Amino acid sequence: MIKQATIKELKTLAPLFDAYRQFYDKVSDIKSAEEFLEARISNQESVIFIAYNSDNNAVGFVQLYPSFSSTRLKRFWILNDLFVYSEFRGNGFSKKLIDSAKELCRKTDACAMLLETSVTNDIGNSLYPSAGFQLRDDANFYEWTNTK
To answer: Under 8 Å CB-to-CB from 140, ≥6 apart: which residues?
Structure first.
């Protein structure tokens, strides 16, 4: 089952989000994870879907942020975070979460959904094309980091 997260799911969502951050070598901080998610949901700054297994345990999530395309004159969504606990990978939860994200795009008349993943993310680099994403080779991705 896939469910859109509300404030009521913060206690369920925070450990998932914390595990996701740890996957990217960040220090565990459940309190800060919960505060971050609460702000995103309360301020309607992101949409989060949670995947539940047959035992009704939360096993994964996807978080999307809205943005806009000036050239296309439409909204698009950034699939920023996708995570499934390792013991539940390979059971279709990621694809179901992506399908929920695609449905959000359809409902909001978005022109696209974009994501970024590391070239070393073998799982993601296999998953995303199989879910209909196309690797763009016509653009360069640049980042400026505020070191202040």
So the answer is: none
> Helix/strand/coil (H, E, C) string of 10-77?
HHHHHHHHHHHHHHCCCCCCHHHHHHHHHHHHHCCCCEEEEEECCCCCEEEEEEEEEEEECCCCEEEE
DSSP output for 111-141: S-EEE---TT-HHHHHHHHHTT-----S---
Domain ranges of the chain: 2-130
The residue ranges of the chain whose pLDDT is under 70 are none
Distances (CA, A) of 116 to 12, 32, 46, 120, 141: 26, 24, 17, 12, 9
Q: pLDDT for 46-78, tens place per residue?
A: 999 999 999 999 999 999 999 999 999 999 999
d(CA 134, CA 81): 18
pTM of the full structure? 0.92
The topology (CATH level 3) of 2-130 is: Aminopeptidase (3.40.630)
Question: Whole-angstrom Cα distance, residue 59 to residue 85?
Answer: 6
Q: What is the pLDDT of residue 52?
A: 97
pLDDT of residue 131: 93
